[in-house]
Amino acid sequence: MRIDIITIFADYFAPLDLSLIGRARESGLLDIRVHDLRTWTHDRHRTVDDTPYGGGPGMVMKPEPWGEALDEVTGQEGTDVAVPRLVLPTPSGVPFTQPHAERLSGEPWLVFACGRYEGIDSRFVADARERMPVEELSIGDYVLAGGESATLVMVEAVARLVPGVLGNADSAVQDSFAPGAMENLLEGAVYTKPPVWRGREVPPILLSGNHGAVDRWRRDEALRTTARNRPELLDEIPEHELDRRDQEVLDEVRLQVGSESVAD
Asked: For a 10 Å CB count at each end of the chain, is N or C smaller?
């Protein structure tokens, strides 16, 4: 997979040289290229923004450097695909979810445009849409200083799903929100060695060797975590997919949550 990132803060993406993503870049599984938008400016101040038409606070990123940057980046060699998919991180975009990461991980070429200030002149987006697929995606209902943080989040979420990036492919299948993973229940508690730490023991069932019982315990924990932290996700699970034990666990959690609310 090739990923191009256009930004005015190229150093922001140094973490992409670390851990799984860094190793995947070294091995050639990922071809990640970071470009400085100011390369495509033509004044001595390397200006990338200006005041908004119609008035108002803040500055808007100019379309000229963005247009030239996208023209040159997408004209470079390095992929058999004619055009990439352009991703624009923006708080006004569609919420980015695990299914988005799954789908984008199958793309051969992605370009991320990291906006700043009040955003990029809308003509740049309109022009890009005439030449390639464009997605405006949001990582949450809040506003950041720029698109770099959101791009890091999305690149990691997507890149780890590219075949070969994770050492154990089953890890991605069992993730919270992964398609088919416990009906998108959140992942429950996890433990490793030692069996006792500061007087706290690992649940005995995990040491039993009874794989069926361990699977049931993990599902119970996933149900408890989801009911406590994201109860709205449970509404998406059809009633017939919850067995008697599932209902018992959920009833226990609801009673506990109700008792805690009364105590508060």
From this structure: C
List the domains of the chain with CATH numbers. Answer: 2-167 (3.40.1280.10), 168-263 (1.10.1270.20)
**Residue 130 is encoded by which pair of tokens?**
């005439």
Q: What DSSP state is assigned to residue 176?
A: T
Containing 166, the helix (H) or strand (E) segment is none
Residue-wise pLDDT tens digits, 144-198: 999 999 999 999 999 999 999 997 655 555 555 555 545 679 999 999 999 999 9
Cα 74 from Cα 248, distance rounded (Å): 55
The pTM for the full model equals 0.86
Residues whose CB is less than 8 angstroms from the CB of residue 222 and which lie 6 or more positions away in sequence, other chains included: 182, 185, 186, 187, 188
262 sits in which H/E element: helix 244-263
**Which residues face 225 on adjacent strands?**
none
> What are the phi and psi torsion angles at 23 (to 5°)?
-65, -35
Contacts of 60 (CB under 8 A, 6+ apart): 49, 50, 51, 52, 117, 118, 119, 120, 121
Catalytic residue positions?
A: 91, 118, 160, 175
216-241: pLDDT as tens digits: 999 999 999 999 999 999 998 888 88
